[in-house]
Amino acid sequence: MPLATLEGNNVSAWFGDHKVLDRVSLTMPAGVITALIGPSGCGKSTFLRILNRMHELVPSASMAGEVLLDGVDIYEPGRKLTDARKQIGMVFQKPNPFPAMSIYDNVVAGLQLTGKTVSRDVKDDLVETSLKRAGLWKEVKDRLRAPGGGLSGGQQQRLCIARSLAVMPRVLLMDEPCSALDPTSTRVIEETMLELVKDVTIVIVTHNMQQAQRVSQQCAFFLASQGQPGGIVEYGNTEAMFSQPIDPRTNDYVNGRFG
Length: 259
Ligand SMILES: Nc1ncnc2c1ncn2[C@@H]1O[C@H](COP(=O)(O)OP(=O)(O)O)[C@@H](O)[C@H]1O
Ligand SMILES: [Mg+2]
Hints:
single chain, 259 residues, alpha/beta, Rossmann fold, 10 helices, globular, binds adenosine-5'-diphosphate, binds magnesium ion
Protein backbone atom coordinates (compact mmCIF):
# COMPACT_ATOMS: atom_id res chain seq x y z
CA MET A 1 0.00 0.00 0.00
CA PRO A 2 1.56 3.33 -1.01
CA LEU A 3 1.92 6.05 1.59
CA ALA A 4 -1.18 8.21 2.04
CA THR A 5 -1.62 11.97 1.99
CA LEU A 6 -4.33 13.45 4.18
CA GLU A 7 -5.70 16.89 3.46
CA GLY A 8 -8.15 19.07 5.40
CA ASN A 9 -9.85 21.75 3.30
CA ASN A 10 -11.69 24.65 4.93
CA VAL A 11 -12.55 22.57 7.97
CA SER A 12 -14.84 24.35 10.44
CA ALA A 13 -16.31 22.79 13.59
CA TRP A 14 -19.03 23.53 16.10
CA PHE A 15 -20.28 22.16 19.39
CA GLY A 16 -23.91 23.28 19.37
CA ASP A 17 -23.69 26.87 18.17
CA HIS A 18 -20.20 27.35 19.59
CA LYS A 19 -17.81 27.54 16.65
CA VAL A 20 -14.42 26.16 17.65
CA LEU A 21 -12.57 25.90 14.32
CA ASP A 22 -12.75 28.26 11.39
CA ARG A 23 -11.79 27.15 7.88
CA VAL A 24 -8.65 25.19 8.65
CA SER A 25 -6.76 23.91 5.63
CA LEU A 26 -3.73 21.69 6.03
CA THR A 27 -2.03 19.07 3.90
CA MET A 28 -0.43 16.27 5.86
CA PRO A 29 1.90 14.73 3.29
CA ALA A 30 2.59 11.04 2.83
CA GLY A 31 5.40 9.60 4.86
CA VAL A 32 5.92 12.68 6.98
CA ILE A 33 5.28 13.40 10.65
CA THR A 34 3.16 16.54 10.97
CA ALA A 35 3.00 18.16 14.43
CA LEU A 36 0.03 20.27 15.54
CA ILE A 37 1.02 22.72 18.25
CA GLY A 38 -0.74 25.54 20.08
CA PRO A 39 -2.26 26.44 23.46
CA SER A 40 -5.09 24.44 25.08
CA GLY A 41 -8.56 24.97 23.71
CA CYS A 42 -7.57 26.14 20.24
CA GLY A 43 -9.14 23.12 18.52
CA LYS A 44 -6.22 20.75 17.86
CA SER A 45 -8.02 17.68 19.21
CA THR A 46 -11.22 18.65 17.42
CA PHE A 47 -9.32 18.94 14.14
CA LEU A 48 -7.69 15.54 14.72
CA ARG A 49 -11.05 13.94 15.53
CA ILE A 50 -12.52 15.35 12.32
CA LEU A 51 -9.71 13.66 10.42
CA ASN A 52 -11.04 10.20 11.30
CA ARG A 53 -14.73 10.91 11.78
CA MET A 54 -14.80 10.83 15.57
CA HIS A 55 -16.13 14.38 15.92
CA GLU A 56 -19.54 13.36 14.58
CA LEU A 57 -20.03 10.98 17.52
CA VAL A 58 -20.53 13.95 19.86
CA PRO A 59 -24.31 14.56 19.78
CA SER A 60 -24.18 18.36 19.46
CA ALA A 61 -21.20 18.43 17.11
CA SER A 62 -21.19 19.54 13.49
CA MET A 63 -18.61 20.41 10.88
CA ALA A 64 -18.06 21.90 7.44
CA GLY A 65 -15.34 21.42 4.88
CA GLU A 66 -13.73 18.28 3.53
CA VAL A 67 -11.09 15.74 4.49
CA LEU A 68 -9.34 14.08 1.59
CA LEU A 69 -7.45 10.82 1.86
CA ASP A 70 -5.44 10.60 -1.35
CA GLY A 71 -7.91 12.97 -2.94
CA VAL A 72 -11.11 11.17 -1.87
CA ASP A 73 -13.37 12.83 0.70
CA ILE A 74 -13.88 10.56 3.74
CA TYR A 75 -17.19 12.41 4.30
CA GLU A 76 -18.54 11.73 0.82
CA PRO A 77 -22.13 10.47 1.03
CA GLY A 78 -22.14 6.70 0.87
CA ARG A 79 -18.68 6.35 2.41
CA LYS A 80 -18.86 4.40 5.63
CA LEU A 81 -17.53 5.66 8.90
CA THR A 82 -15.73 2.35 9.41
CA ASP A 83 -13.83 2.86 6.11
CA ALA A 84 -12.30 6.01 7.51
CA ARG A 85 -11.58 4.32 10.85
CA LYS A 86 -9.81 1.41 9.21
CA GLN A 87 -7.54 3.66 7.19
CA ILE A 88 -6.98 6.35 9.78
CA GLY A 89 -6.10 5.12 13.27
CA MET A 90 -5.94 7.15 16.48
CA VAL A 91 -3.91 6.98 19.68
CA PHE A 92 -5.01 9.06 22.67
CA GLN A 93 -3.38 11.01 25.47
CA LYS A 94 -4.15 8.45 28.14
CA PRO A 95 -3.24 4.88 27.21
CA ASN A 96 -6.56 3.05 26.94
CA PRO A 97 -5.97 -0.68 26.49
CA PHE A 98 -8.71 -3.02 27.72
CA PRO A 99 -7.10 -3.64 31.11
CA ALA A 100 -8.52 -7.10 31.86
CA MET A 101 -8.03 -8.35 28.31
CA SER A 102 -4.80 -10.14 27.41
CA ILE A 103 -2.01 -8.36 25.54
CA TYR A 104 -2.73 -10.65 22.57
CA ASP A 105 -6.45 -9.91 22.54
CA ASN A 106 -5.83 -6.19 22.91
CA VAL A 107 -3.78 -6.20 19.72
CA VAL A 108 -6.49 -7.94 17.69
CA ALA A 109 -9.37 -6.04 19.33
CA GLY A 110 -9.67 -3.61 16.42
CA LEU A 111 -10.05 -6.32 13.80
CA GLN A 112 -13.83 -6.36 14.15
CA LEU A 113 -13.70 -3.04 12.27
CA THR A 114 -12.54 -4.92 9.21
CA GLY A 115 -15.49 -7.33 9.46
CA LYS A 116 -13.26 -10.22 8.37
CA THR A 117 -12.83 -13.51 10.21
CA VAL A 118 -9.16 -14.22 10.63
CA SER A 119 -7.58 -17.62 11.26
CA ARG A 120 -5.51 -18.28 14.35
CA ASP A 121 -2.26 -18.40 12.38
CA VAL A 122 -2.93 -15.12 10.68
CA LYS A 123 -3.80 -13.58 14.04
CA ASP A 124 -0.59 -14.89 15.60
CA ASP A 125 1.41 -13.32 12.78
CA LEU A 126 -0.47 -10.06 13.01
CA VAL A 127 0.06 -9.84 16.77
CA GLU A 128 3.78 -10.41 16.38
CA THR A 129 4.15 -7.97 13.49
CA SER A 130 2.09 -5.25 15.15
CA LEU A 131 3.92 -5.56 18.47
CA LYS A 132 7.25 -5.45 16.64
CA ARG A 133 6.24 -2.34 14.72
CA ALA A 134 5.12 -0.72 17.97
CA GLY A 135 8.49 -1.56 19.56
CA LEU A 136 6.92 -3.75 22.26
CA TRP A 137 7.46 -7.33 21.07
CA LYS A 138 10.67 -8.10 22.96
CA GLU A 139 9.17 -6.95 26.25
CA VAL A 140 5.95 -8.96 26.01
CA LYS A 141 6.55 -11.96 23.75
CA ASP A 142 6.70 -14.34 26.72
CA ARG A 143 3.52 -13.07 28.33
CA LEU A 144 1.05 -12.48 25.55
CA ARG A 145 -1.74 -13.97 27.69
CA ALA A 146 -1.12 -11.58 30.61
CA PRO A 147 -3.59 -8.71 31.03
CA GLY A 148 -2.83 -5.47 29.18
CA GLY A 149 -3.51 -3.54 32.37
CA GLY A 150 -0.41 -5.08 33.98
CA LEU A 151 1.99 -3.22 31.69
CA SER A 152 3.70 0.08 32.54
CA GLY A 153 2.19 3.29 31.18
CA GLY A 154 4.68 3.52 28.32
CA GLN A 155 4.16 -0.14 27.42
CA GLN A 156 0.37 0.34 27.51
CA GLN A 157 0.71 3.23 25.09
CA ARG A 158 2.80 1.07 22.73
CA LEU A 159 0.15 -1.67 23.10
CA CYS A 160 -2.44 0.88 21.96
CA ILE A 161 -0.21 1.75 19.01
CA ALA A 162 0.04 -1.98 18.19
CA ARG A 163 -3.76 -2.27 18.41
CA SER A 164 -4.11 0.59 15.92
CA LEU A 165 -1.47 -0.89 13.61
CA ALA A 166 -3.14 -4.32 13.53
CA VAL A 167 -5.92 -2.80 11.42
CA MET A 168 -3.24 -1.72 8.90
CA PRO A 169 -4.08 1.98 8.85
CA ARG A 170 -2.47 4.26 6.29
CA VAL A 171 -2.51 7.21 8.67
CA LEU A 172 -1.95 7.32 12.43
CA LEU A 173 -3.28 10.26 14.44
CA MET A 174 -1.73 10.75 17.88
CA ASP A 175 -3.25 13.17 20.39
CA GLU A 176 -0.56 14.07 22.93
CA PRO A 177 0.48 10.40 23.10
CA CYS A 178 3.32 11.02 25.57
CA SER A 179 1.84 13.58 27.93
CA ALA A 180 1.11 10.90 30.57
CA LEU A 181 4.55 9.27 30.20
CA ASP A 182 7.99 9.69 31.74
CA PRO A 183 10.88 10.97 29.59
CA THR A 184 12.33 7.50 28.93
CA SER A 185 9.00 6.05 27.74
CA THR A 186 8.48 9.22 25.72
CA ARG A 187 11.74 8.68 23.86
CA VAL A 188 10.82 5.06 23.13
CA ILE A 189 7.51 6.20 21.60
CA GLU A 190 9.32 8.86 19.57
CA GLU A 191 11.74 6.27 18.19
CA THR A 192 8.76 4.06 17.35
CA MET A 193 7.14 6.96 15.47
CA LEU A 194 10.28 7.66 13.47
CA GLU A 195 10.36 3.98 12.46
CA LEU A 196 6.62 3.83 11.66
CA VAL A 197 6.59 6.91 9.45
CA LYS A 198 8.35 4.87 6.77
CA ASP A 199 5.00 3.15 6.10
CA VAL A 200 2.35 5.24 7.87
CA THR A 201 1.62 8.95 7.61
CA ILE A 202 1.62 10.42 11.13
CA VAL A 203 -0.07 13.48 12.65
CA ILE A 204 0.76 14.26 16.28
CA VAL A 205 -0.62 16.87 18.66
CA THR A 206 2.01 17.83 21.19
CA HIS A 207 2.53 20.47 23.87
CA ASN A 208 6.18 19.59 24.03
CA MET A 209 8.17 21.91 21.76
CA GLN A 210 11.27 19.71 21.99
CA GLN A 211 9.20 16.74 20.93
CA ALA A 212 7.79 18.62 17.93
CA GLN A 213 11.35 19.44 16.87
CA ARG A 214 12.66 15.92 17.50
CA VAL A 215 10.01 14.03 15.55
CA SER A 216 8.22 16.25 13.04
CA GLN A 217 9.25 17.49 9.64
CA GLN A 218 6.21 19.71 9.26
CA CYS A 219 4.44 21.76 11.89
CA ALA A 220 1.18 23.75 12.15
CA PHE A 221 0.59 26.36 14.84
CA PHE A 222 -3.06 26.62 15.96
CA LEU A 223 -4.40 29.57 17.91
CA ALA A 224 -7.80 30.85 19.05
CA SER A 225 -8.01 34.53 19.96
CA GLN A 226 -10.25 35.40 22.90
CA GLY A 227 -13.81 34.30 22.11
CA GLN A 228 -12.92 33.35 18.54
CA PRO A 229 -12.76 29.93 16.86
CA GLY A 230 -9.35 28.38 16.40
CA GLY A 231 -7.36 28.42 13.19
CA ILE A 232 -3.87 27.92 11.84
CA VAL A 233 -1.60 30.94 12.21
CA GLU A 234 1.35 29.44 10.42
CA TYR A 235 2.56 26.12 9.09
CA GLY A 236 5.53 24.72 7.26
CA ASN A 237 8.88 23.07 7.75
CA THR A 238 9.43 22.43 11.46
CA GLU A 239 13.01 23.65 11.62
CA ALA A 240 12.12 26.89 9.86
CA MET A 241 9.09 27.45 12.08
CA PHE A 242 11.16 27.15 15.21
CA SER A 243 14.19 29.09 14.01
CA GLN A 244 12.59 31.77 11.84
CA PRO A 245 8.82 31.95 12.42
CA ILE A 246 7.05 34.46 10.23
CA ASP A 247 4.25 35.47 12.60
CA PRO A 248 5.21 37.16 15.90
CA ARG A 249 2.58 35.02 17.70
CA THR A 250 4.32 31.86 16.50
CA ASN A 251 7.60 33.29 17.69
CA ASP A 252 6.17 33.97 21.15
CA TYR A 253 4.60 30.52 21.39
CA VAL A 254 7.57 28.44 20.24
CA ASN A 255 9.75 30.39 22.63
CA GLY A 256 7.47 29.62 25.55
CA ARG A 257 6.13 33.13 26.07
CA PHE A 258 2.51 31.93 26.34
CA GLY A 259 0.34 28.81 26.32
N1 LIG B 1 -17.31 17.52 23.68
C1 LIG B 1 -17.28 18.87 23.68
N2 LIG B 1 -18.41 19.58 23.90
C2 LIG B 1 -18.39 20.93 23.88
N3 LIG B 1 -17.30 21.68 23.66
C3 LIG B 1 -16.14 21.03 23.43
C4 LIG B 1 -16.06 19.60 23.44
N4 LIG B 1 -14.79 19.23 23.18
C5 LIG B 1 -14.09 20.38 23.03
N5 LIG B 1 -14.89 21.46 23.18
C6 LIG B 1 -14.48 22.88 23.07
O1 LIG B 1 -13.90 23.06 21.79
C7 LIG B 1 -12.79 23.94 21.85
C8 LIG B 1 -11.58 23.24 21.27
O2 LIG B 1 -11.22 22.16 22.11
P1 LIG B 1 -10.10 21.10 21.74
O3 LIG B 1 -10.27 20.70 20.33
O4 LIG B 1 -10.14 20.04 22.77
O5 LIG B 1 -8.78 21.98 21.87
P2 LIG B 1 -7.26 21.54 22.11
O6 LIG B 1 -7.11 20.10 21.78
O7 LIG B 1 -6.46 22.45 21.23
O8 LIG B 1 -6.95 21.81 23.55
C9 LIG B 1 -12.64 24.34 23.31
O9 LIG B 1 -13.30 25.57 23.48
C10 LIG B 1 -13.38 23.24 24.05
O10 LIG B 1 -13.91 23.72 25.24
MG1 LIG C 1 -6.48 18.48 22.91
